[in-house]
Amino acid sequence: MKAKEFGYARVSTIHQSTDRQIEALKEYGISERDIIVDKQSGKDFNRVGYLSLKENMLREGDSLVVKELDRLGRNKQMIKEELEWFKANGIRVKILNVPTTLMDCEGQEWIMEMVSNILIEVLSTIAEEEMLKNHQRQKEGIDIAKSKGVSFGRPKLQKPDGYEEVMDRVAVGEITAVAAMRELGLKKTSFYKLRKLYLTQQEVLL
After folding, report:
1. Cβ atoms < 10 Å from Cβ of 193
2. What gap in Å lies between CA 199 and CA 103, rounded to an integer?
3. Is residue 66 classed exposed, middle or buried when 0-12, 13-18 and 19+ CB atoms within 10 A define those classes?
4. Which phi and psi (to 5°) does residue 9 adopt?
């Protein structure tokens, strides 16, 4: 079966236009019937058109053509993984604004292998740098928030008024745990957490 070229265009919302991308793909030589369009976010690859391309249309020896790399997606690590999948399945990815991916190297497949490896390696480096930057920004944000008195994590369980007195009565069998929960206005989980704390404190006192 003769190898085919498929085009892929994507915008993030239904209100955006794919005309510019489609025109560029057509100018390159892709038939409009072979251009798949998605109007979904690029945060992951769970898109109807894209999945249809991967699962039902593209075959070994075919090419997937996009105007720009970020039309595939915006998560660099995920793009890297997709490019590795295409490479493993013998599918070439051509990016119109990256001319080296468009070179015809018939009989010199090693050149395209090299270009593909470089692209994957560059994306891997970018993904790692972005992850480190995000972690650093997150840490800086937490540090600033903490300096302003903002606390993180689940709020500490507050002891209700009369907590120790009620727990003492439960300990000697004067009232049941259910009655204590009702009296203290606590849910079962909260009650038993405080109950555990109470028993620990009693052991320390002993």
Report:
1. 13
2. 74
3. buried
4. -125, 140
Rounded Cα gap, residues 166 and 184, in angstroms? 8
**What is the distance of C-alpha 199 from the center of its chain?**
43
Dig out the tokens for 190 from the structure: 């909260």
Report pLDDT for 75.
Answer: 77
Catalytic residue positions, numbered? 12
pLDDT at 172: 82
DSSP 43-86: SSS--HHHHHIIIII--TT-EEEESSGGGT-S-HHHHHHHHHHH
Q: What is the dihedral of CA 84, 86, 87, 91, to 10 degrees?
A: -170
Q: Which two tokens stand for residue 170?
A: 């439960």
Q: Up-side HSE of residue 80: CA atoms within 13 Å toward CB? A: 15
CA 93 – CA 115 distance, rounded (Å): 10
Give the integer Cα–Cα distance in Å for 192 and 190.
6
- Amino acid letter for position 68: E
pLDDT < 50 stretches in the chain: none
Which region holds residue 133: left if phi is over 0, alpha if psi is between -120 and 50, else beta?
A: alpha
pLDDT tens track for 79-101: 888 888 998 898 988 888 877 77
